[in-house]
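Not sure how to ask, but would you mind making up any protein sequence you like and the tokens describing how it folds?
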Amino acid sequence: MKKCYYCGKKMSSKEHIPPQQLFKGFDVNSITVYSCAEHNNKKSYNDDAIIKSMLMAIENSNNNLTPNIQIAVDNAKEHYKQVKRTVKGEKIYYDYNEKIICLDPSIDLDNWIRALSAAMIYYKIKDFDDKNKYKEYKIFERNSYSVKNKYLKDFLIERAKKIELQKLCEKGEWNNSWIAKSNYPEDLYFFKYKFIDTHIFFKHVFFKSFTYYNLIEISAETK
């Protein structure tokens, strides 16, 4: 029996990793893994909301965009209305009236990253290992900030903490991903990894702007 990459249940379809929406308009050799219905069909709207929220945030920034990222933004623009109930802009703090893009709390971004890491491991080892603890560790994301920080002082405190935590995450050498043949444009998505004792540590980077760190305890067989 072929098993789902994330829960080990009987597969019902295949899941693209990362989601196809990430590469809309690009010709890539998409990687797929086996998936149950819960971890494929039911999460497609989450994929759409998360990716469009990233592109909306990038569009609102003053950063120079690479040609590929500009294409991704242009391709997504006319479809922003599709996620208007789950993606919105909010003030990051009153003093400067700056805005960030916020996901509705119903969208579990942490679990979305955990599932991506699990899929990458599944693709590598070609099987589901129920000893890997995909769901037990918190995700750290460097580049976005909570809406509750309405004042500049609170924002700067949170920013300083995130910078220090990122320095800790970056200690040691990263290995390049094992998906080079997929020809994913690296300015749209790439990941790196390293082993720390009984754990694998992932760094997922989207659109050169959003960096997510995911620590996972894995079995000796997987390692």
